[in-house]
């Protein structure tokens, strides 16, 4: 595994890791407050045949906190990603996103289409996530007041946040009300609570507020790369109808609904998801990438051939001109010698 830090668009040092090897990179984008728990089974499965790139948003995991809270939007994350792609010198990638990472995936295809060759949005929305949380407007209505309280009493609410999110109560509420407790393994889900409990509560709220202001919906009909959407039938964060809506908006979009799957479907039924994504990569992404590569190689060959022909022609012309010049010089020299010899002969006769 290769790991390190790169400089984000605003100068923040952001963490990344690269695993596996392959011509097509798969770039993993987490949900807000996540450090990578959703990819526990994904990475070992796909790193055998693909290069896997995983990174941490600002203030997440091993990335630094930003100097200000002014650049925490979805577009800002995409600009950070563009810097990472250049830093690692990556060819066009398959963007894989979970939860809020789905917004990053769609926006990346809009802002940097030349850097993307496929999209795999998993259990997430195209935007405005508070509008559809639990399929009602309650959180959208309450959130502004929560954000205001956090802004005004950050220190106190930071302590409350840490106590609540790392408690057994939080875990039990999640497995009984939010995720499929019958499918999820406690050891797989616990890292989420451990990480979110350490997060800066103001950064979390600011990122959520920025995500709520973003929507990639207008750009979905313009997506030109293959897309397979993975949704969960019991996902309370992203209702099933929303996954169907996204599929209908994306030209050629494919959809897999996980029976009984919730928002944590990637760790509930990983094998099912992996097989579907692998089929998608083999049948739709790889042939496209190989075709583009072949066309690029053909153009490069033609361009090289034209350059070689032009060079050969130029060289031949230069040689011809040189030979002609040499011949002219030699003829001129002979004529000059004859001219100098003539008077000598006349003097001898006299």
Give a verbal description of the structure.
The model is unreliable at 333-337 and 339-350 (pLDDT under 50). With 350 residues, the chain is of the alpha/beta class. It has eleven helices and eight strands. Helix 4 packs across helix 5 (154-165) and helix 5 packs antiparallel against helix 7 (186-198). The strands form two sheets. The protein has a six-stranded mixed sheet, with helices on both faces. It has a two-stranded parallel ribbon with strand order 7-8. It has helices spanning 42-46, 74-88, 101-111, 138-152, 154-165, 168-178, 186-198, 201-212, 240-249, 265-268, 270-349; strands at residues 2-7, 13-19, 25-29, 51-55, 93-98, 116-122, 228-232, 254-258. It is elongated, with a radius of gyration of 32 Å.
Key phrases:
alpha/beta; disordered C terminus; two-stranded parallel sheet; 11 helices; single chain
Layout of secondary structure:
Blueprint: E1 2-7, E2 13-19, E3 25-29, H1 42-46, E4 51-55, H2 74-88, E5 93-98, H3 101-111, E6 116-122, H4 138-152, H5 154-165, H6 168-178, H7 186-198, H8 201-212, E7 228-232, H9 240-249, E8 254-258, H10 265-268, H11 270-349
Parallel strand pairs: 3-4, 3-5, 5-6, 7-8
Antiparallel strand pairs: 1-2, 2-4
Helix pairs in contact: 2-3, 4-5, 4-8, 5-7
Total number of helices = 11
Oligomer: single chain
Q: What is the 3D shape?
A: elongated
What is the average of the pLDDT values?
91
Q: Whole-Å distance between the termini?
A: 100 Å
Q: Rounded to an integer, what's the Rg over CA atoms? A: 32 Å
Spans of at least 5 consecutive residues whose pLDDT stays below 50 are 333-337, 339-350
User: Which strands sit side by side, in order, in the main sheet?
Assistant: 1-2-4-3-5-6
Could you spell the SSE succession in H and E letters?
A: EEEHEHEHEHHHHHEHEHH
């Amino acid at each position: 595994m290769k790991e390190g830090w790169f400089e984000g668009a605003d100068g923040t040092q952001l963490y990344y890791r690269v695993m596996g090897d392959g011509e097509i990179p798969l770039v993993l984008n987490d949900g807000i407050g996540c450090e990578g728990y959703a990819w526990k089974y994904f990475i070992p499965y796909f790193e055998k045949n693909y290069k896997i790139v995983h990174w941490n948003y600002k203030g997440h995991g091993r990335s630094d906190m930003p100097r200000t809270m002014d650049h925490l939007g979805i577009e800002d994350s995409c600009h950070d990603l563009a810097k990472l792609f250049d830093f690692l010198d990556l060819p066009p990638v398959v963007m894989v996103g979970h939860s809020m990472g789905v917004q990053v995936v769609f926006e990346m295809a809009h802002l940097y289409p030349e850097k993307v060759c496929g999209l795999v949005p998993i259990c997430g929305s195209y935007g405005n996530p508070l509008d559809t949380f639990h399929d009602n407007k309650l959180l959208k209505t309450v959130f502004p007041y929560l954000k205001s309280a956090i802004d005004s009493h950050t220190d106190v609410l930071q302590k409350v946040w840490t106590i609540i999110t790392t408690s057994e109560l939080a875990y039990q509420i999640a497995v009984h009300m939010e995720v499929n407790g019958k499918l999820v393994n406690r050891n797989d889900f616990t890292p989420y609570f451990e990480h979110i409990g350490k997060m800066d509560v103001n950064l979390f709220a600011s990122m959520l507020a920025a995500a709520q202001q973003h929507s990639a919906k207008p750009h979905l009909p313009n997506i030109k790369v293959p897309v397979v959407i993975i949704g969960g039938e019991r996902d309370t964060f992203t209702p099933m109808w929303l996954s169907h809506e996204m599929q209908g908006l994306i030209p050629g979009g494919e959809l897999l609904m996980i029976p009984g799957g919730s928002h944590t479907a990637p760790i509930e039924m990983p094998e099912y998801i992996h097989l579907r994504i692998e089929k998608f990569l083999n049948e739709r992404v790889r042939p496209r990438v190989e075709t583009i590569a072949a066309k690029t190689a053909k153009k490069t060959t033609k361009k090289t051939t034209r350059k070689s022909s032009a060079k050969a022609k130029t060289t031949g012309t230069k040689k011809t001109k040189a030979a002609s010049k040499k011949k002219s010089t030699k003829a001129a020299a002979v004529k000059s010698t004859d001219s100098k010899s003539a008077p000598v002969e006349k003097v001898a006769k006299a």
